[in-house]
Amino acid sequence: MRHTANWRLRTRTIELGRRTLVMGVVNVTPDSFSDGGRFLDRDAAVAHALKLMEEGADLLDVGAESTRPGSHAGGPVHPNDKDLSLGAPVVGAEEEQARLLPVLEGILRARPGAILSVDTYKAETARAALEAGAEIVNDVSGFAWDPGVAAVCAEFGAGVVLAHTRGRPEEWRTQPQLAADALLKMVREGLAASVDAARRAGIPDQAIVLDPGYGFGKRFEENYALLARQSELLALGRPLLAGLSRKSFLGRTLAPLFDGNGGGSEAPMDARENASLAALTAAILHGASIVRVHAVRPAVEAARIADAILAA
Predict the structure, then answer these.
(1) How far apart, in Å, are the Cα atoms of 86 and each of 77, 83, 128, 170, 176?
(2) Distance between the two ends of the chain, CA-based, in angstroms?
């Protein structure tokens, strides 16, 4: 069973665990793996966000830098960082904010009560987004790539989503394969370290949600082992968010169904929605309180059924 808990955000508190909350994704990027370029224009992004809310999204996660496998996201964001071999992020904080802030402001102008999360690992961008009205910072690195994000979140009293990431995106597909026990140990210890970093910065436990980080440095088959044992992560004491929508490992599993139609090693992006719903349902039944999705309406319906199973 999943946790029932209050999640403390910047200006409000919301309940988790009574029913699954659906987080809609708004990518203000030219190169995201799923819908890169479609919503780079401010008006298109705002219109898409409002449409997701009309379809039932409880909250929105807005990002302006792709962290797809192979990207250069997560490089040093400060000149004095030790590991400069990775190179600076392709999208700097200034460009990220130029994409992001007008969209946040446009959504809140149209829907002042919207609960907005900003998908960033940069302290400067987190600060600007929270000043613009965001309630949550979703850091895919779990405060590892820019430790300054933790202090910003503590200062503003923001809600945080701390994800587990193994290495940097350009390293993800060359990571050695792990057995299930070793994988779960790595994810559990990594998330525990992120929680410790949050606590040291002064972020209360009530502000923290954890994300296992599907696809973020996990080899294809490893994601299924993680999903099957996801509920073990509830031992960390915080609610879970699962982001499985349209991930590559789902496409890899479906690939044989498309080989006769010229399919390659993965099913195409537009053919992964049913698989996303299957994975989403499994994640809810294994303890997720929030699901992060691209297609909101089908996710709302699937979550309703999964919630009914849990209630029974």
Answers:
(1) 11, 7, 25, 9, 19
(2) 12
Neighbouring C-beta atoms of residue 171, cutoff 10 Å? 14
- Please name each of the domains of the chain with its CATH number: 5-311 (3.20.20.20)
**What pairing do the DSSP bridges indicate for beta strands 159-163 and 136-139?**
parallel
Task: Tell me which amino acid residue 168 is.
Answer: R
Q: Give me the count of residues in the chain.
A: 312
Cα 186 from chain centre: 19
Two structure tokens written together for 154: 């503590």
Kindly calculate the radius of gyration of the chain based on its CA atoms and give it in whole angstroms.
18
37, 31 contact by CB (below 8 A): yes
The yes-or-no verdict on residue 40 having pLDDT over 80 is no
Specify whether 247 is catalytic: yes
- Cα distance between residue 203 and residue 159, in whole Å: 9
* Residue (of 231, 222, 220, 150) closest to 188 by Cα position: 231
Query: Would the CA dihedral through 289, 293, 297, 298 be positive or negative?
Result: negative
| pLDDT tens-digit map of 54-111 | 999 999 999 999 775 544 555 555 544 544 444 555 688 999 999 999 999 999 999 9
Active-site entry in 247, 252, 272, 304:
247
Catalytic residue among 18, 292, 297, 304: 292
